[in-house]
Amino acid sequence: MKIPLFPLDVVLFPGAPLPLHIFEERYREMFRRCMAEQIDFGVVRAQEDGLAVVGCTASIGRVMHRYEDGRFDVMCQGERRFEIELLDDTHAYLQAEVDFLPDDGPEATRAEREQCAALHFEAIELARLELPMPHLDLDKPIAFSLAAALPADLDFKQQLLDMRSDASRTRKLQEFYEVLLPQLRTSSPIRKVQGNGRVM
């Protein structure tokens, strides 16, 4: 399947909100097409050495504000993970042939999710970060919801997005918190945490 691509310095997770300010003409064109044809676009992390291979589609919600010069603010939401197979630069904006990536591994147990959520909220409280509290259904996967609210580095978030198992993502998040929490318990408040658990 071919989809329009929006390279950004973010890692978007399924279900996560994505507010955007659209100002470049090529992306105005892309958004006009997506809204007219009611199609999603792909958000992929732009890195110094190129694009990440795995990204996440985003659906367009509502236009929050339109400016007189044609710029606009729009609220989007992450939907489905994909893997880029082939890039197409024949348009003003980038497109790609993609394959969608459903999970093919086991899901975490409810007990594992409860433990991971508890560690997450303890870390956020100790770091004194004012973050929106995700709504969690512990009978369903929660790793993406927790990771979306986590001010961790993008390399770590990309690793989570690449994983094909809810159990693996939940364990990796839990390991992250278990390394981070002892530092938080004995250090001053932080603003951002590294994926390897180092305090910035």
Automatic annotation (TrEMBL):
GO biological process terms on file: proteolysis
Coiled coil: none
PROSITE patterns: LON_N (PS51787)
Taxonomic superkingdom: Bacteria
Transmembrane in keyword set: no
Keyword annotations: Hydrolase, Protease
One of the Pfam families matching this protein, by short name: LON_substr_bdg
GO molecular function: peptidase activity
Residue ranges occupied by any Lon N-terminal domain in the UniProt entry: 1-184
Cited PANTHER family: ATP-DEPENDENT PROTEASE LA (LON) DOMAIN PROTEIN (PTHR46732:SF8)
Protein name: ATP-dependent protease La domain protein
